[in-house]
Amino acid sequence: MTKQTKPPNGWGVDALTTHLQMAHENRFATFANKKVESQLLIALDGCFVKIVPALINPNHPVAAMLLIRTHALFRGACEHAMAGQLPETFNIIRACLECAGYSLHIAKNPGADRVFLQRHDDAAALQTSKNMFKVSEVRKTITAANAKAGEVFDLLYQLAIDQGGHPNEQAITGNMRMIEGDGKIEIQQVYLHGDGLQLDFALKSTARAGVCTLEILREVFPERFRLLGITDEVLKLRRGL
Question: What is the pTM of this model?
């Protein structure tokens, strides 16, 4: 596809592309005005950028593929957080955490890769996969490998569920605006948050998810993380989170 740097004809004349353009501009504003938060996300992405090309001849190919998908999901969470799309950010954070957890679960449980790949073979395979990859089972594997990462995973996962991973109360009321006037109350749902507590919350939560997933994935590929300096880098980046 040819790279296009200017908006094409017809862009921004309808509700959808206007919304997409506003989200795009919000990301510019976040990058310019939230320098510390933006640079932290960039640094965490840089850790993923280092490890992905180093996944040559991995002992656990499926786990390696899940690491790459974790990176893609982290970028998606960054994209939505920087745009001020709070519930959507947490929906992706949930998937990002699960992807990293699945990677470790597969690496630590012989045969789990086959169960994962055979999920859709038949009804029995589907049920076996569902049982093996329950979040509670994945959390046990994480905790056994790294107790602190397991604790943080659980906290972030539950937060993601509450804030948008499921259509829960906080995902609705936390993105609601009430306007009183002319004898009526208008209730609005916010699609794109501007600067404020909600934006800060989304950015910090995304950074925390980035740190947590990298620490989980380090348990899958410890030597590669160490040789590339990612282990030490994550220790520095998690300070203050």
Answer: 0.94
